[in-house]
Design brief:
- The structure holds two protein chains of two kinds.
- Chain A is mostly helical.
- Chain A has two domains: 181 residues, Orthogonal Bundle (Cytochrome Bc1 Complex, Chain D, domain 2); 146 residues, Cytochrome Bc1 Complex, Chain D, domain 2, CATH 1.10.760.
- Chain A is built from 13 helices and four strands.
- Chain A has a two-stranded antiparallel sheet. A two-stranded antiparallel sheet of chain A has the order 2-3.
- The two termini of chain A are 14 Å apart.
- In chain B, the strands form twelve sheets. In chain B, strands 17, 18, 19, 20 and 21 form a five-stranded antiparallel sheet that branches. Chain B has a four-stranded antiparallel sheet with strand order 1-48-23-22, with no helix packed on it.
- Chain B starts with a helix and ends in a 10-residue tail after the last strand.
- Classes of the chains: A mainly alpha, B mainly beta.
């Protein structure tokens, strides 16, 4: 495994700062979970989660060796201190190439049922390698990445220890997916309130929670421990953006009812991880609230859940206060 | 408690033990029928005790299945614990401890444990194990081996159900898995404590259920049984080698068994234990392999009756006789919309389909209403829509509207803290409804469809409850009941002029609980339905309150009355809901017995 100086040398000073920050994050013990998360996390039988595998995946996650020109790592876009997103409207890949959608937050994705904004990947193992090969993202050939890994004695040894064989594409997928499973967010004021600690939320946040569940109807899609139903909805977001052509889920299913539908993202860490919506078209949470208050963006496929809300300014303020209570403790690593 | 109650419950028919005939056929035996027989409890593993809710008091009790005697596990203070009651319960393997859900003084369920008292003992004070408004509905399902934890189903305020283990020591909760708004009908611990078996929808949007195994440490899950059949209510055999479950795979509901080992189904198909059980609810298996189950045995039917008729009932209407209720006339009187029980059973409310019955053609057709539960119906004045009280497939409770022409179902008003039954409400015009806003204080609210605005028409003083709102034709007057919250029903019937919000008392209820209010055409009188210790009654009351006379003899009438626009006929629901407790002795294969 690389030492901090070696890793910093590769990643630059920014990378060193990130690595130092990572080390400062509380490391999760074996199978310890932040408050609010389920004990059961689906893990495929062919890729059991082990600390060693997650550690290898972490190493890969931060290594720009996985990109075509060696300039980007997964962590370039999935920045730990930004809730494992990047704070940009649209993802920016190799050579400054602009992506079509915002970088999703990676927290708690181990509980996900489908991946990417359009759900085109059914498993994390399937998802983690797609950005590597995407010309707008890391623009690398996975076979070439494997050759590079095999050329590094450290990686060859690490893969040998974890998988009993040299680096290969499956090993890369399994290790990265395992690491992503360790990126967890919980123990927020909301989690503590749900667990019975009534004073964990301020009065404004408690009012905001009632609005979230009631008049604002947010909880119809943002529900459960991860505040997402993992389903796809058309809110009309992005329809006003210049050149809006992203049809979302329909590209995967070819079912016209999925036109303009995108996956409900988690709201964990939402206050610190703008901009918002699949295209980053809403800069602040205030804008998001206004968007939903006016009933989203009308279009022929608008989800029936999206209706004008008629929120007062006080209700909007309380709702905003509640959304800020969804930020908690972010852990990563074995 | 009278001697009759101590011995009671067995005053109903108790069949002699049906010895298995030489053919080996497993024969169901009626164990208990009576007013307290309900499917909220469970047998102890040793087969000696059966927990149940005493319907008169709401307390938890246990019945000795050998002697027929009962003992109270809880004993409420009737002065300070009005409105509180026990609900689901399970017993520890030795029958000495009960875990149960308790509807508490704050209006939600908490989880409690109590020792089952001995023959000469008074009930012991229960211990509140877990109390959290955010997890306000609780179903204890099974004690772990050694009784260190209780396998519990929580249903949260955000409509998420969760499989959890609650420590019997300190009440600490370990959430194993969250399941969105669809909850398992049954969960059970394997005898070795390694596995939890439960049922769940086979896929999002599916109608049928499959059987799943979840490692009790939350490390692994497998689908034990899938396929096109509806497989549900799983229970572990005493030796842990089989899972018994209810299934419609033969075309009717029966008990089946599947061998399992190490979290997987053993080779082979499920075997049929007993078919044709009807509306059964598996409750628990004893160590001897006897399966206890509840049976929904009551019947309800819709009848169209001439007011003033001396004799009841005339022939029932609608398909599926014995399962129908809650009929309402269309504004033109040509059609009845009504509810019909469908699908597999639930421990609480039955699932209902919504049908239209043509009085001319004497035929029904089912509407594709996209709700999980529907409890009450109302027609819009223009006859184009139905207002439905219930909950949708995301467990959101409230009022929904169904458009007859398009077949669309949409939410109208949603409760922030629902119980699945929805809200009480009715149309006040084609573009407005009136509904009872729960909470404290309760209020009658006028909700406009066009502006989505809510206007409070009336707020109940103190902690009084509001019920059965009924709007006169033309939408000018609102009749409603305002009652004490203790469930006894004492209170008044009030009339409110909607434009001015002015209210006046129509009458003080003579006794019993108001279950219906319906305006007569012309708005000069109302029908008031009450239910009490002397049975159910229907009264014709003038809008001035000057006259009150019986409108119908109505024995065993259920809530829900609708007046035909001609003012001469009413649609009523007659019958009763009741449960029986049955046992399938030796339900598991002999090789599986200890």
């Amino acid at each position: 495994m690389q030492s901090l100086p070696q890793a910093a040398g590769r990643a630059g000073l920014g990378g060193l700062a990130l690595l130092l920050l990572l080390r400062a994050l509380p490391a999760a013990g074996p199978r310890t979970l932040p408050l609010g998360l389920d004990a059961y996390m689906p893990v495929p039988d062919e890729n059991p989660l082990t600390p060693e595998k997650a550690a290898l995946g972490r190493k890969l996650f931060f290594d720009p060796l996985l990109s075509g020109d060696g300039s980007l790592s997964c962590s370039t876009c999935h920045v730990p201190r930004l809730g494992f997103t990047d704070g940009k409207s649209l993802a920016v890949g190799i050579g400054g190439r602009k992506g079509k959608r915002r970088t999703p937050r990676l927290v708690n994705r181990g509980y996900g049922r489908s991946f990417f904004w359009d759900g085109r990947a059914a498993t994390l193992e399937e998802q983690v390698v797609q950005p590597i090969g995407n010309p707008l993202e890391m623009d690398a050939n996975l076979e070439e990445v494997v050759r590079r890994l095999n050329a590094r004695p450290g990686y060859a040894a690490a893969f040998g220890k974890v998988f009993g064989r040299p680096p290969d594409t499956d090993g890369v997928r399994y290790a990265l997916a395992s690491y992503v499973r360790t990126i967890l967010s919980g123990n927020s004021p909301y989690d503590r309130y749900i667990a019975g600690e009534m004073e964990a939320l301020t009065p404004a946040q408690r009012r905001g929670l009632e609005i979230f569940r009631g008049k604002a109807n947010c909880a119809v899609c943002h529900l459960g421990p991860n505040l997402t139903d993992e389903e796809f909805h058309n809110t009309g977001a992005g329809l006003r953006s210049p050149g809006a052509r992203d049809k979302g889920r329909v590209n995967v299913t070819a079912d016209p009812v999925d036109t303009g539908a995108f996956k409900t993202p988690t709201l964990r860490e939402v206050a610190a991880t703008g901009p918002y919506m699949h295209d980053g078209s809403l800069a602040t949470l205030e804008e998001v609230i206004e968007f939903y208050d006016r009933g989203g963006e009308p279009n022929s496929n608008l989800s029936p859940e999206i209706q004008r809300l008629g929120l007062t300014s006080g209700e909007k303020s309380d709702l905003l206060a509640f959304l800020k209570a969804l930020s908690g403790e972010v852990r990563e690593g074995p | 408690m009278s001697l009759l109650r101590l011995l009671g419950g067995f005053c109903g028919a108790v069949a002699l033990a049906a010895a298995a005939p030489e053919t080996g056929e497993i024969v169901p035996r009626l164990v208990w029928q009576g007013p307290d027989a309900n499917a909220l409890g469970a047998p102890s593993r040793d087969g000696r005790w059966f927990s149940y809710v005493d319907t008169a008091s709401g307390d938890l009790a246990v019945r000795d299945l050998e002697t027929g005697q009962s003992r109270f596990v809880t004993r409420k203070d009737p002065r300070s614990q009005k409105g509180e009651f026990a609900y689901f319960s399970v017993l520890s393997a030795d029958g000495k401890t009960a875990a149960f859900a308790w509807f508490n003084d704050e209006g939600y369920y908490d989880l409690r444990v109590a020792e089952v008292p001995g023959p000469a003992e008074s009930p012991h004070p229960p211990r509140v194990l877990y109390r959290n408004r955010e997890a306000g509905f609780v179903q204890p399902c099974a004690f772990s081996p050694g009784a260190k934890s209780i396998l519990t189903l929580f249903f949260r305020r955000d409509n998420i159900s969760q499989i959890a283990l609650v420590s019997t020591g300190d009440g600490a909760v370990r959430t194993l898995k969250s399941l969105n708004w669809i909850y398992p009908k049954r969960m059970d611990f394997s005898p070795d404590g390694r596995w939890i078996v439960y049922d769940n929808l086979s896929a999002a949007g599916a109608g049928e259920r499959d059987i799943f195994l979840l490692d009790s440490g939350g490390r692994r899950e497998t689908r034990l049984l899938g396929g096109p059949a509806n497989d549900l209510f799983p229970l572990w055999s005493p030796d842990g080698r089989e899972v018994l479950f209810l299934s419609d795979r033969s075309g009717s509901m029966g008990i089946w068994a599947l061998r399992a080992a190490d979290g997987l189904a053993a080779p082979g198909e499920p075997r049929l234990v007993r078919d044709g059980l009807g509306r059964a609810l598996p409750l628990g298996l004893t160590a001897a392999g006897h399966l206890y189950y509840g049976l929904r045995a009551g019947q309800t039917d819709v009848h169209v009756v001439n007011l003033g008729a001396a004799h009841l009932p005339p022939p029932a209407i609608g398909d599926s006789p014995g399962r129908n209720s809650g009929a309402v006339f269309s504004p033109d009187g040509s059609t009845l919309a009504y509810l019909s029980a469908r699908g597999p059973e639930n421990y609480g409310r039955a699932q209902h389909a919504v049908l239209l019955y043509s009085l001319e053609r004497h035929s029904s057709r089912e509407l594709p209403v996209r709700l999980a539960h529907t409890e009450r119906l109302a027609w819009s004045p223009d006859g184009r829509r139905l207002l439905l009280a219930g909950s949708d497939r995301r467990a959101r409770s409230g009022l929904f509207e169904y458009e007859l022409e398009s077949g669309r179902t949409r939410p109208v008003v949603l409760a922030t803290q629902g119980n699945g039954r929805g809200l009480e409400g009715t149309y006040a015009g084609n573009d407005e409804i009136v509904y009872v806003r729960p909470g404290s204080p309760q209020a009658l609210v006028l909700h406009g469809f066009k502006d989505q605005a809510d206007r409070v028409l009336y707020e109940a003083p103190g902690n009084l409850h509001l019920a059965v709102p009924a709007v006169s034709a033309g939408g000018l007057r609102l009749a409603f009941a305002q009652v004490q919250p203790d469930g006894g029903g004492k209170g008044d019937i009030l009339l409110l002029a909607i434009p001015s919000r002015k209210t006046e008392r129509l009458l003080t209820l003579p006794g019993g609980r108001v279950i219906d209010l319906a305006w007569m055409p012309g708005g000069q009188a109302l029908l008031v339905g009450t239910e009490g210790s002397s049975g159910s009654h229907l009264w014709h009351v003038s809008a001035s309150g000057d006259t009150m006379r019986p409108a119908l003899p109505a024995p065993r009438r259920k809530p829900g009355i609708s007046v035909h626009p001609d003012g001469r006929k009413v649609a009523v629901t007659l019958g009763e809901d009741r449960h029986e407790i049955w046992v399938l002795e030796h339900a598991i294969a002999p090789a599986s017995r200890r």
